[in-house]
Design a protein that fits this description.
With about 425 residues, this protein is of the alpha+beta class. About 40% of the residues lie in helices and about 20% in strands. It is built from 14 helices and twelve strands. The strands form three sheets. A five-stranded mixed β-sheet has the order 5-6-1-7-8. Strands 9-12-10-11 form a four-stranded antiparallel β-sheet, covered by helices on one side. Helix 1 packs across helix 4 and helix 11 packs across helix 12. The protein is globular.
Length: about 425
């Protein structure tokens, strides 16, 4: 039986979801039908474009460019601030809907996933009919549209979903790549970024077909292992399968594309606190402890960097993960403007498994606090967690034990489970929406 894979991608996800919320709140303007973007700050007019409407695209506005540039192209551009809490909610709703159709789903990002159609294809007349049914039901049920790419290879399914938009289904089987994919510019190939495109241009490779027909060894000699990957993708070579194992089996992480470039350590720590809270909460919900923490930074230049450290003992405590993230950030950041931050946990362990403790783990976290400890009690301990921890000092005061911090996290989890995620909010987040 031939493998059939769908790639499902929400059209202008952030903008679509923000527009739907505005319409639900009584606004009569649909952002998807006017020149509009999501990103940055409307009043200060800085930050980057996170998503754009199709009318905005006609002005030459592209995702990732500074908002000031977008405003020069279209002075009447409408700018909507991002709402990541809303986007995560919409993403969960979509993935739950798709999982009820087919359990073999691999989520690629907040707004896209692969679906292995092979096991359920006997329930539909054809893959195209199934994709049309799924696409239309998403539009009618949720109010936003998706593109669906169909192929026998994952990379080709993703390429197909990027063809003409919105609200369309496209196929790109291996047998169709010469006709449909090879005439496209090489910059359109999945994983072919600006630097790779420029390197290929110097080799007089302009289309995906040019790349596919070039001797593989020539490509490898100039672009190393990434060149081999691009050459294989250009020829439709991809043996990967849809991995539906939950991310929790390998690691739990979270990242955020920032509404504007961050240039101050204090502001970066603010986002790391939110990300660490999220990761720690998901660890506790999954019944896992993290043995390793890593931090990822994507700069405004789109260069990425990451660093990781092993914890002295596995943990699911918010403060431990946050302090480790801040330490990694300080070691990693080169001072350039930051566009994305991510925190990830790995080397997961079951709490029931024995673990070797450091001598410093008895009665403390091992990372010293920025301020003197607050009075005892859950509420006081919640206020104690700082937004920017200081570096270790011999004169720093004693820190609440891991047991107290774990008890605090457990209490906060119980409150949020009963009354909602917004029932308990950190003091440093009170000024935010």
């Amino acid at each position: 039986m031939e493998q059939i894979i769908f790639h499902i991608d929400v059209n202008s996800a952030y903008l679509s979801w923000s527009s739907l919320k505005r319409l639900e709140n009584g606004d009569d303007t649909d952002l998807r039908k006017i020149p509009a973007i999501v990103g940055g700050d409307m009043e200060r007019r800085h930050g980057v474009v996170l998503a754009k409407s199709i009318p905005a695209k006609k002005y030459g506005i592209v995702t990732g460019e500074p908002i000031v540039n977008a405003l020069r192209k279209c002075p009447g551009l409408v700018i909507e601030s991002p709402d990541h809490k809303l986007y995560n909610q919409k993403s969960r709703e979509l993935m739950h809907f798709l999982s009820e159709i087919c359990p073999d789903i691999e989520q690629l990002s907040v707004d896209e996933c692969f679906l292995d159609f092979t096991s359920i294809q006997n329930r539909f007349p054809s893959p195209d009919d199934a994709a049309q049914t799924i696409k239309n039901k998403i539009r009618d049920s949720f109010g936003f549209t998706v593109n669906i790419g169909i192929s026998d290879k994952k990379v080709l399914a993703k390429m197909a979903s990027d063809f003409k938009k919105p609200d369309l289904v496209h196929t790109l089987y291996t047998r169709e790549i010469r006709e449909k994919m090879w005439p496209m510019p090489v910059s359109s190939l999945y994983m072919c970024g600006k630097s790779s495109t420029e390197a290929l241009r110097k080799l007089e490779i302009k289309t995906i077909g040019d790349l596919a027909k070039t001797d593989r060894e020539i490509i490898v000699s100039h672009l190393k292992s990434h060149g081999l990957l691009l050459w294989e993708y250009a020829n439709g070579i991809d043996d990967s399968t849809v991995v539906s194992v939950p991310a929790e089996a390998k690691g739990i992480g979270n990242s955020i594309t920032l509404p504007r470039d961050v240039t101050e350590e204090k502001e970066a720590f603010h986002y790391l606190l939110s990300l660490s809270d999220s990761v720690a909460g998901r660890l506790r919900k999954a019944g896992q402890l993290a043995g390793m923490i890593s931090v990822e930074i994507k700069y405004s230049s789109f260069k990425t960097a990451s660093h990781q450290m092993t914890l002295s003992s596995p943990s699911d405590i918010s403060r431990v993960i946050y302090d480790a993230s801040c330490q990694l950030f300080r070691e990693l950041w080169n001072g350039s403007p930051i566009r994305l931050l991510g925190v990830r946990s790995s080397k997961l362990a079951d709490p029931s498994e024995p673990s070797q403790l450091s001598l410093f783990d008895f009665g403390q976290t091992g990372i010293l606090p920025a301020n003197p400890p607050a009075p005892s009690g859950a509420a006081a301990q919640a206020a104690f967690i700082p937004s920017a921890p200081a570096r270790q000092s011999k004169n720093s005061p004693a820190f609440p034990s891991r047991e107290k911090l774990a008890a605090l996290d457990k209490t906060l989890d119980a409150i949020r489970q009963k009354y909602g995620d917004s029932a308990v909010v950190r003091g440093s987040f009170l000024d935010e929406d």
